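It is worth pausing here to work through a concrete case rather than discussing structure prediction in the abstract. The textbook approach is simple: state the sequence, then state the predicted structure, then interpret. We follow exactly that order.
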Amino acid sequence: MLLVAVNAFVGAMVGLERSTLPLIGEADFGLTSSAAVLSFIVAFGLAKSFTNLVAGVGAERAGRRRLLILGWSLALPVPLLIAVAPSWSWIVAANALLGINQGLAWSMTVVMKIDLVGPKRRGLALGLNEAAGYGGVAVAAALSGWLASQLAPRDVLVAGAAGIAVTALVVSLAFVRDTAAHVRLEQRDHDTDETAPTLRHVFPEASYRRPPLRACSQAGLVNNLNDALAWGLVPLFLAAHGASAAQVGLVAGLYPGVWGIGQIFAGGWSDRIGRKPLIVAGMLLQAAALTMLAVSDGAVGLAALAAVLLGAGTALVYPTLIAAISDAVSPIARAPTVGVYRFWRDMGYVVGGLLAGVAADAIGYSGAIAIVAALTAGSGLWVALELHAPARRPAPAEA
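Step two, the predicted structure:
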């Protein structure tokens, strides 16, 4: 539960930006191009993706706790850079640091929870982890959107980020302990001669060689592609149709709020009925929600309903994908494989930021959203074809 609380702080760091930063780009820095505004998401996604790779391999060598603390240490300069930024490039640099923070801190809370619970409750643990993280995103997004309608958006973002980063660093230093001993215990019941795989080995395995891992990796990428759109483009889409900062904050908060709460149930549900049905259904539900948003003409009521459906679809997918990855590999290969999956998943921010920004400039907001809806539906069908239940390993003895 301590790790659940820490991950809520991780999510809140990103949530502060959900309803404020795209608006700051237009109001404080005079940006008129959607591609220029969304450049901060591209920087965030690149930094987080490559950090996930390093974190996955480094977890077995440097230790989970050390990487968690390093992640929070690197979050401390983020609010300072945003506060003094004379140009948008400083905001982009701050988001690169934020991406490193997220890649280290979120990856370590995920892996440490999986270490602690063992295979029987893996989906539930991941559901709790992701629920806390995206619950933090939702609360911070809604609260910062409301405060931004009363105060200067940049001041809200800076004060909130500073408080969260300092608190989470102190909690991690004082209370979090490493989980390496739990990994050794679980690995003892598998193959005692196996060693942690190198990145050179695990990257192609998780990226394209093994169909179940490949299906999960592409689905993760597409899932965060549409999350990038929700983060960076939807606030601009709504504002262009006359929505207030508070209304933007409401929609920005509903989506991760439903996503967060739904994962508590989805993770445990996938332990009982399997991973594939929830992933396929979730991707198709996301596609339907994005289609509704594309035809809404920015009406806040329809946008709010689409946000709820998008959150429900993502809740079915998000913890289930990581559980499916973990099912398919041995305990000692878990952290590196999850790191590669998270690399591809968070590359979705890069692809989504570029695609949504360029498409919005070329064919408008609705057209950009419709393109992402089609890609999401295709991704769900890919999972339906390639993801199969792995051969079950013998369950380890209860500790």
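Step three, interpretation. The chain has one domain: 2-176+193-386. The radius of gyration is 20 Å.
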